[in-house]
Amino acid sequence: MDHSTESLPERYMMIGKFEDHHDFKTKLSSALSQEEFVVQFRQKSIENDDYLELVKIAETVCQQFKCILLLGTSVDIFSQTSADGLHLNSQVLFEYESRPVEKDQLLSISCHDLDEMKQAEILGADILMLSPVKATASHPELTGIGWSSFNQMIQQVECPVYALGGMQAPDMGDAKRYGAQGIAVSSFWK
To answer: Which domains are present in the chain?
Structure first.
């Protein structure tokens, strides 16, 4: 698969809840049959063996639909897969001094401020997510930075940035107008 960031889709989908392996495959296949996505799979509450089984399903489905699959997991778990890339959250961002994956693998990183974005660039990030752009129910304690601040921040980095936080499908127009690659939305997962 082409791991170039020049042809990234506008939609970045985080995999949400599912009942079992069959439901997981059905929901992922359904989403990917309707739109082109970058897919991020992170499941903190799943045991490693089960997570790896689900990753195999996700790899197969994403290959079928020619979608990028990023894993929000440890470098160790990621190295046991053939996913397209690794996603790091900002909590582990400063634990690394160099790029934790090979150059032919994608590195996606969630950021909340310019310092984190600059650290992500030092690590050679290929994709950034900047949040929260708007207020969000998942983090009610955080105030959204707004589109103007989002635009000012992304002007200072080189890699594509997805808007995250309070995003819904209709926000795509604003996201593109303010320079985002697109939007990252968990509600794309149904």
So the answer is: 5-188 (3.20.20.70)
